[in-house]
Every structure is written in structure tokens, then in C-alpha cells.
Fold:
Amino acid sequence: MSGLILKLSPKERVLINGAVIENGDRRSRLSIMTPNANILRLRDAIHPEEATTPVRRACYAIQLVLSGNSEPEEAKLQLLRRIEELSLALTDHDSRTHLTRATEALLGDQHYQCLKALRALLPREDRLLAHPRAS
Structure:
């Protein structure tokens, strides 16, 4: 059996192909069997006013694709440019690995996987912005 497994907390909300679904009072597990379904956990969603850093802006852009508010083909070139810009700043091996995964997922129209790879860079970006380098 393949597909995406979503483990939801009580009352957790998730956006699936444009529909907001709220879990009941118990933890649950959903198997998403439809390939290329657009899925976004609303607890992980970045709000427009929070998209203030390069990684957050890239995450927000792919999130718009997942929510159906942006056309995948129109967003692809913009996202590839953003990922390329990130690769100029995040040069360590681990960051490059996540950026490569994000690029491959985007090129394969695996938008959720692209978001997942980009979100992995958020803690690193937060640390870098909290401790700017001395000149």
C-alpha cells in the first residue's frame, strides 16, 4: 500500500484539494491514496504576513499551489528561482540536500514533498537571522 499517511490530532484541520477537513475528538490516521492530491496541514500554514524571509516566502509560494490559489506551472519557474537564490546563501551540505530535494520534488510536481523539504530549512534560517555574521 502506498500513498501519504496523515496522522491528525483531535480537532486538527487539513486542506485537501481545496476542502478544509476537521478531525473529530480523537487522533486519527488517514491514508491519501490519490496521487498528486493537494494537501496542507493548516497548523503548518504560513500566513501572508509571516512570509518575511527568503525560506518563508518560498514555503508560502508552494503553499499557494497546494491550496489551489496558484497554478502549478506558473509558480514553478518562480519557485525554481527562489530555490536557486537560497542555494547561493545556504551553502552547507545539509541545506544543499534539502534544496536538491525541493527542486526534484517541484520538477516532479510533488508539491507537498517540495514544501516539506523547504520547511526543513526554517530552523536553520531562523538561527542565521538571529545571529548575523560580523563584518
User: Anything to note?
Assistant: Residues 72-89 form the longest helix (18 residues). Helices lie at 54-66, 72-89, 93-107, 111-119, 122-130. The radius of gyration is 16 Å. The first strand starts at residue 4 and ends at 8.
